[in-house]
Write a structure and sequence with these properties.
Elements (H helix, E strand, L loop, with lengths): L10 E3 L5 H7 L2 E10 L9 E4 L3 E4 L4 H16 L13 E7 L11 E9 L4 H11 L1 E6 L3 H10 L4 E7 L13 E5 L15 E4 L4 H18 L4 E4 L3 H13 L4 H4 L2 E2 L12 H14 L1
Parallel strand pairs: 1-4, 7-8, 7-10, 8-9, 10-11, 11-12
Antiparallel strand pairs: 2-3, 2-6, 3-4, 5-6
């Protein structure tokens, strides 16, 4: 990414939630990865928004991004044949070979699209980003839950944050997070979208057990929860298996559950450390 200068500092932002104030005061160019052949720094659909003095998102950094920013700002100032102003939509493509001539050695070919946007385009862009995001349901608003929301809020995920305590949620959450009070808390399981990844870390083992039982029942009926994660130790999971057996669940159900959660090898118990390990495991999925 460009670092900017003291005379003209570059605002570097990464979330669609940062766009509204920018689009209210200045036109912008939406730069997106439209195709990749061979090796490229970002995947198809990756995006960046460029204004005269701000950048939101990234299409991969390095000289590819430097050139994308230059072309976008040239379009904004009307110094290319693409469009003199944004009174009519800017729309063009540029092909980049990621070789020595661009100062990059990825070896692939990337096609970037450049489209003028204004504040009226924001709902469409937000809907598009949400449709591409990984659905996650987080049950529990405790220390680890709050730390995890901070991490997931910067990732391409659409998060439903559920707790039985209505007062537990902070006044401000990331734009990709929706808070829901549910009592009984396990009832929210039945309204989750298909393909949702579920994390359980409520304030109560009894609540965790109720949520997990609901997840396993739904998984039996619809087989549409690809990840069911429970925070806790091996001892907690052994206790839960015993209690779930009394409810009629068995080995096939237990095989759906990840407990403990988080990628192996990270031993720290601080909420922030657990949050990073869990987020990494979700990305692996």
């Amino acid at each position: 990414m460009l670092c900017g200068t003291k005379a003209n500092p570059e605002k570097l932002l990464y979330s669609l939630s940062d766009l509204p104030p920018l689009l209210q005061v200045a036109p912008a160019i939406w730069v997106s990865v439209r195709s990749v052949q061979g090796s490229g720094p970002r995947e198809v659909g990756a995006w960046m928004v460029v204004t005269a003095n701000a950048i939101v998102g990234t299409v991969g950094g390095g000289h590819l991004e430097f050139e994308a920013i230059r072309l976008a700002r040239a379009a904004l100032t009307g110094s290319t044949a693409a469009q003199a102003t944004l009174s009519a939509p800017v729309s063009f493509e540029q092909r980049f070979a990621l070789g020595p001539s661009l100062g990059q050695c990825c070896g692939g070919v990337v096609v970037l699209g450049f489209d003028g946007i204004t504040a009226s385009d924001l709902p469409r862009l937000q809907a598009q980003a949400q449709a591409q995001a990984q659905a996650v349901a987080l049950f529990g608003g405790g220390h680890v839950g709050k730390a995890l929301i901070e991490v997931l809020g910067r990732l391409p995920m659409s998060v439903l944050w559920v707790d039985s305590r209505d007062e537990i949620f902070p006044p401000q959450v990331p734009a990709n997070v929706r808070c829901e009070h549910s009592d009984p808390v396990q009832q929210a399981v039945w309204d989750l979208p298909a393909g949702c990844h579920v994390l359980m870390m409520s304030f109560s083992h009894a609540e965790d057990l109720d949520i997990l039982a609901a997840c396993l029942l739904r998984a039996r009926q619809h087989n549409d929860l690809p990840y069911i994660g429970l925070i806790g130790s091996d001892t907690k999971w052994a206790t839960f298996r015993h209690r779930l057996e009394a409810k009629g669940f068995g080995p096939d159900d237990f095989a759906r559950v990840t407990c403990p959660i988080g990628i192996p090898g990270i031993e720290g118990k601080q909420p922030e450390v657990i949050a990073v390990a869990v987020a990494a495991q979700l990305l692996q999925r």
